[in-house]
Design goal:
Blueprint lengths: L2 H13 L1 H37 L4 E7 L2 E3 L1 E2 L1 H7 L6 E12 L4 E8 L4 H6 L9 H6 L2 E4 L1 H9 L5 E5 L5 E9 L11 E5 H8 L5 E2 L1 E5 L6 H11 L3 E5 H39 L3 H12 L4 H32 L6 H6 L16 H27 L3 H5 L1
Helix pairs in contact: 1-11, 2-9, 2-11, 9-13, 11-13
Length: about 400
């Protein structure tokens, strides 16, 4: 394409601006919703996958009467005897309910000298005095918990009610960054001894046991040996955790994608109908071009180029607007469909992560319909009787 041809395309766009503005607005709206959904879903899945990568290979839980039960710490030494396991550690965690609001926090009790805790939470404890954390009643809280505490006038500490109906005052030592993880939003991290007191777990018990198995080809054998050791257990692998997170957000984003695909197909039909109903001025324009020597191929290329420019601009504007809406404005309204609001409000920020393969596929799909919507009617007019169109 030479410079004159490009100038002519933009001249035609300006002359037909009333028609193109309507198509642009509809295209922009549909693409904005669709791309924003892709951005939110991709960002959340990326954060969750990053979280699961740092998790242990196996989590062992004891099941009694269909419910999870605390595990005796003696199991840890038994499991350590199984060959192929590199690290074994008990963990204490549980939900603490705020009865007045019916909200819940996830309390995680850690031993900062354990290998799992040191590897996972190293960045958190970089600027914290470990001895102060261990010897005092301190906690590290997620950004959502911090917002909830502030709203209920607990800026510096919180009074936990233990199962023995005793008040346990715990000071806030640090608040996790909103970008840390969507999982950490409602999390409270404290020393394992303090967590046992608040959750009512005996000293010789843990809630589950974490295992690392470096050789993934041995995973199935390790699972069999664990079940032989204790039959009433549930084994959750890192892969199971990844699949559950993937399924969760694929289901949510898939639901939206189906709705938007229906919407975009409806839009394409409207677009095709809009361009099929070419008025007399458009017919005259094509007839004049044919009469001054333009070939059918040149006319079709001109009209397709005119339509494609509108589609490209609509896609670019929708892409930029979606990026700003999700990663700068934090996707208000849309975020609630993915994160929910039944518990503590999520204050996490969406970390930019773009699946360019999906974006390119959407662009090609969208532009293809744009081209098809103008190609057929333009070709029909270009091959029709010129004299009839000029009259």
């Amino acid at each position: 394409m030479n410079k004159n041809f490009i100038n002519f395309i933009f001249t035609l766009i300006y002359q037909h601006k009333s028609k193109h503005i309507a198509i642009f607005i509809i295209s922009f709206s549909v693409l904005f919703l669709l791309i924003s959904t892709m951005f939110v879903s991709s960002s959340l899945k990326n954060q969750l996958m990053s979280f699961t990568h740092s998790q242990p290979d196996f989590v062992v839980q004891q099941i009694k009467a269909g419910k999870r039960a605390d595990i005796p710490t003696s199991w840890i030494n038994e499991i350590k005897q199984i060959k192929g396991i590199s690290l074994t550690q008990g963990r204490v965690y549980g939900q603490y309910y705020h009865l007045a609001s019916d909200y819940s926090f996830v309390i995680v009790g850690i031993d900062v000298f354990d290998d799992f805790a040191t590897n996972e939470l190293k960045a958190i404890f970089d600027d914290i005095d470990i001895s102060e954390f261990i010897n005092g009643n301190y906690m590290i809280i997620g950004s959502g918990v911090k917002e909830f505490f502030d709203a209920n006038h607990y800026q510096e500490y919180y009074n936990f009610l233990t199962p023995d109906l005793e008040i346990k005052k715990v000071d806030i030592l640090k608040t996790l960054d909103a970008n840390s993880s969507v999982v950490a939003n409602d999390m409270i991290i404290m020393d394992i001894t303090l967590a046992r007191q608040i959750l009512g777990i005996e000293n010789d018990y843990v809630t589950d046991i974490l295992l690392n198995v470096p050789n993934d080809t041995e995973w199935q054998n390790i699972k069999i040996e664990l079940i032989d050791l204790h039959h009433n257990i549930k084994i959750i692998t890192k892969e199971d955790l990844e699949k559950s997170y993937t399924h969760l957000y694929n289901y949510t984003s898939g639901f939206f994608l189906i709705l938007f695909m229906i919407l975009i197909l409806t839009f394409c039909l409207i677009l095709y109908q809009r361009y099929s109903m070419i008025n007399s001025n458009d017919k005259k324009e094509i007839a004049i071009l044919r009469s001054v020597g333009w070939s059918i191929k040149d006319v079709v290329i001109l009209k397709v180029s005119e339509s494609t420019v509108i589609g490209i601009f609509a896609f670019l504007f929708a892409f930029i607007a979606s990026y700003l809406y999700v990663f700068f404005a934090n996707a208000p309204i849309l975020r609630e469909f993915f994160l929910g609001s039944h518990n503590i409000k999520h204050t996490v920020s969406f970390v930019p992560f773009i699946d360019f393969g999906l974006i390119v596929s959407l662009f090609l799909f969208f532009i293809s319909f744009f081209v098809a919507s103008i190609l057929i009617p333009s070709w029909k007019i270009a091959v029709s009787d010129i004299d009839g169109s000029l009259r």
